[in-house]
Amino acid sequence: MASHTSAQGTVTIGSNVVAELRSMSLETSAEIIDATTITSAAKVKKAGTVSFTGSIDCFWDETDTNGQITLIEGATVAVVYLFEGNTTGDYSYSFSALVNSVSISASVDGMVEASFSFEGTGAITRGTV
């Protein structure tokens, strides 16, 4: 069984790796349609449209002008998630997404952090590096 550490993961926006990445998430779902008819002996379900959301958390880096700085609310961006890393055969998720929120925070005893969330626009392409 293969296992991977989170240190192997990367996120790219366009062709640029996002700097100072701390975490990333991707959640996919499918609408379930009830296709049961009055003569059905059991519930009949069919897959409807699919959707996805995701987020990335980073230490804020204002010099990451091709990564973090491009993640502006309302922007549509091309994204690639590589949870396993960037070695031949590693699984990849490529998609277009609309950035729906940006949060930058700081505390007296911590680093300046940034969180970005998005919603997918279209389908995810699943493949390998």
Q: How would you explain this protein's 3D organization?
A:
The structure is a single chain. With 129 residues, this protein is mainly β. Helix content is 0%, strand content 53%. It has no helices and eight strands. Strands 1, 2, 3, 4, 5, 6, 7 and 8 form an eight-stranded antiparallel sheet that branches. β6 (91-105) and β7 form a beta hairpin. It is elongated, with a radius of gyration of 18 Å. The model has no long low-confidence stretch (mean pLDDT 93).
Per DSSP E runs of 2 or more residues, the count of β-strands stands at 8
Low-confidence stretches: none
Give the proportion of residues in helices. under 10%
Which structural category do the helix and sheet elements fall into? mainly beta
What's the short story on this structure?
The chain is an all-beta fold. The chain is 0% helix and 53% strand. The chain is elongated, with a radius of gyration of 18 Å.
Could you list some keywords that capture this structure?
129 residues, mainly beta, single chain, elongated, eight-stranded antiparallel β-sheet
Q: Secondary-structure map with pairings?
A:
Blueprint lengths: L9 E4 L2 E2 L3 E14 L10 E15 L16 E7 L8 E15 L7 E8 L4 E4 L1
Antiparallel strand pairs: 1-2, 1-5, 3-4, 4-7, 5-6, 6-7, 6-8
